[in-house]
Amino acid sequence: MSKVLIIGAGGVGTVVAHKCAQNSDVFNEIVLASRTKSKCDAIAKAIGKDNIVTDSVDADSVEQLCELFDRHRPDIVINVALPYQDLTIMEACLKCGVNYLDTANYEPKDEAHFEYSWQWAYRERFEKAGLTAILGCGFDPGVSAIFTAYAAKHYFSEMQYLDIVDCNAGDHGKAFATNFNPEINIREITQNGRYWQDGKWVTTGPLEIHGQLTYPRIGQRDSYLLYHEELESLVLNFPTIKRARFWMTFGQEYLTHLRVIQNIGMARIDEVEYNGVKIVPLQFLKAVLPNPQDLGENYHGETSIGCRISGLDKEGKELKYYIFNNCSHEAAYRETGMQAVSYTTGVPAMIGAMMFLTGKWVKPGVHNVEEFDPDPFMEQLSVQGLPWEEIVGGDLEVDRLG
Ligand code: NDP
Residues with beta carbon inside 6 Å of ligand 1? Predict the structure, then answer.
């Protein structure tokens, strides 16, 4: 018998709960807990199965987390709250002997800065406790790194150039909305770009480098170089990589709104005083923007996320390789009531926990997903709603950018 505890009842948590419930042979019992219990209750009601119970927790408090863990005694926690809660949840896992999985690396609230050092610092303690922590198991980070590990295992003797390409060609009909938590999303996009080149990080201005890339069944889209957290672990785990970059598509309308938001100070993450109350402008903005969970109903089109890799194949010959998944917003909504960005994050999080519970990804310590065998995960991706495709020997286009 296995029991999973999902923390967070946002867009991603909703998808994780649906997908765990669909796989009740692995997830025999499901606990869904978040800050607002009524949101958990609504999700459990929509799923309508009797093996889901709900609870409430403030995941900023290790004490409350331990009480929650003691009440339910889960085998693994799927953390799909916000990146701010990663360390408290990891700390509670250690205290109570629970395994851990998340989809985003820790970020301090007062600084838009993401790196793995804070979580990697827990390696020895998890190892000693005999507990497994799986970091970054959404789509990107997550499947992007598993695609890379799969390419390394089956196609390359030496991977040299890696470009992760993330396109959302969906249209939700709103002038401006973010596809996941607006605070986290805007913090990510407005910071400097960064990529790996010949053994060191190169920093660019925010969204400074861009160009057109062609996405399968979508066409050409403006794609912007961003720093993305999986680059940090991938260049360490695959040291032959000479250059690693991450690209994301944005429409002009979105970028214009973003520029205005920044210019008028609404992207600030420091406190300002308003009518005697301290507020953080970006948190206030989140409260007035459309809720990402409500975008699904009218969302059309697809996402396309993948890895374009070149290097030497197993025989030492030049190889160009592209592996990707396209996901339909409409299909994701029909299945779970959420759009494709939440879907492409929640499905891999469920599969990662499934890998752990079925004994395929059990490795005490703190690990990024590319450190595990990609094959059983890739098999499940196709079965669980995110089939992937490969193009071998095509034009990767990426050398024309930058
Ligand atoms: P949402 O904002 O929709 O949901 C976050 C949930 O966490 C909410 O239910 C919220 O509760 C809850 N929460 C926040 N703070 C606490 C707390 N202190 N204690 C308990 N619960 C809390 O976010 P998303 O669902 O869009 O994203 C979830 C995670 O997924 C984020 O970490 C995000 O970075 C990550 N992500 C990863 C991606 C990937 O590909 N790897 C892509 C997209 C997202 P309440 O409802 O009360 O506010």
Answer: 8-13, 34-36, 39, 57-60, 80-83, 85, 103-104, 138-142, 180-181, 184, 292-293, 341-342, 345
